[in-house]
Structures are given as structure tokens and as C-alpha cells.
Design a protein that fits this description.
Oligomer: single chain
Number of helices: 3
Strand order of the largest sheet: 1-6-7-8
Shape: globular
Number of strands: 14
Order of helices and strands: EHHEEEEHEEEEEEEEE
Radius of gyration: 21 Å
Largest sheet: 4 strands, antiparallel
Helix content: 10-25%
Length: 189
């Protein structure tokens, strides 16, 4: 019996200068990689992963142009449907070469959600905390009211966002994003 999984969200990076070492570690780990495989991208594809790479992209920094991340793996999608030990063995093998703070999020056939979180040395499987919260009335930009989940002070939602309620403002923080929304409580609630 197998367990179906689906890639949801991810933020991952393996620098181009670490790919050869990651390939070597993957081959030594015992994960099934063809002996003749010469690139990390090919090895990952053999194992059911779809790596995305940065091509030669130029970004403007004022008047200067520079190339950032050419050859880096900046996405890693699971192309198969079933969770196996090989999935975790692959992630364990490449973990020391993945940037700290990278993560991959999955959803299982039973709708459970989890992430593999990389710290620059190892990978950890983590699960969100579900917090059923009472409704709060929010005043939106369109001057309409809608019901949204509230928290007493601070909570982490299933998407990993930190939600902070202060007097008259809800602050939602996730990665490098921060959003503040004014709100009013209903008089009856």
C-alpha cells in the first residue's frame, strides 16, 4: 500500500558551486542513481524530482547589471505520486548543500500538510499547528466586512504565516512579507 503526496509550495536553493558535492553525497547515500549520471539535475530527475535552474538572468541594480545565481537550482518539485523512504533519503543526502531556511511543502492523500525544512546541515520534517479561532470582523479596502479567523495574540497558520493581533490592527508576517490590516470588532461579538 502506498501513500499519495503532492508538492504544494517550496522555497529552495542549491548554489551552482555546491551541486557536484551534492551529487557525490547523493551517490554515496545508497539512493538509486545510475553510475554514469554526471549532474545533480539528472540524478534528481531519475529519482522523480523536477529541478528548476536559474539561467543567465540579469537583474538591474541601479545602473549596474550583474548576473545572479546562474546555474543554481531554485526549485525542486516532486514529480511522482507516492511517498517512499527514497524521498527522505534523497533529501537527507542533499541537505548539507541546500541553503538554510529552504523548505518544501507537501500535502498527503488524507489532506495532511507538512514541510521539509533545511537548516544548512540537515533536513527536518515539520507539521503545522492547527488553531481553531473565533471569528473576527475585518474592515476591508472595499468598505465591506468579512469574517476571518482571529487569534488572541500570536499564532502560526497552516501556511506558516505569523498572525499578530494588536489594538485595531492585524499583522500577518511570512518570509520577507508583512501586511497590516485595520479591523473592528462587531459590537455584538
Amino acid at each position: 500500500m502506498s501513500y499519495n503526496i503532492y508538492s504544494r509550495e517550496q522555497k529552495i536553493r542549491i548554489a551552482a558551486n555546491k551541486k557536484d558535492a551534492a551529487l557525490s553525497a547523493l551517490k554515496k547515500s545508497g539512493v538509486r542513481v545510475n553510475e554514469g549520471t554526471t549532474s545533480l539535475e539528472d540524478a534528481l530527475e531519475e529519482l522523480g524530482w523536477g529541478p528548476d535552474m536559474v539561467q543567465q538572468k540579469k537583474y538591474r541594480n541601479g545602473k549596474k547589471r550583474k548576473t545572479l545565481g546562474a546555474g543554481d537550482i531554485v526549485g525542486l518539485y516532486f514529480d511522482r505520486e507516492h511517498l517512499t523512504d527514497e524521498v527522505e533519503d534523497t533529501l537527507d543526502a542533499i541537505a548539507p548543500f541546500v541553503d538554510a531556511g529552504s523548505y518544501m511543502e507537501f500535502e498527503g492523500e488524507d489532506m495532511s500538510v507538512w514541510r521539509y525544512l533545511f537548516d544548512g546541515e540537515k533536513v527536518e520534517e515539520i507539521y503545522p499547528t492547527v488553531d481553531w479561532m473565533k471569528p473576527l470582523l475585518i474592515h476591508t479596502v472595499e468598505d465591506e466586512y468579512q469574517m476571518v479567523p482571529s487569534v488572541e495574540r500570536v499564532a502560526i497558520n497552516a501556511c506558516g504565516a505569523k498572525i499578530i493581533i494588536t489594538s485595531g490592527v492585524i499583522t500577518i508576517q511570512r518570509d520577507d512579507m508583512r501586511t497590516e490590516v485595520p479591523y473592528k470588532r462587531r459590537a455584538d461579538g
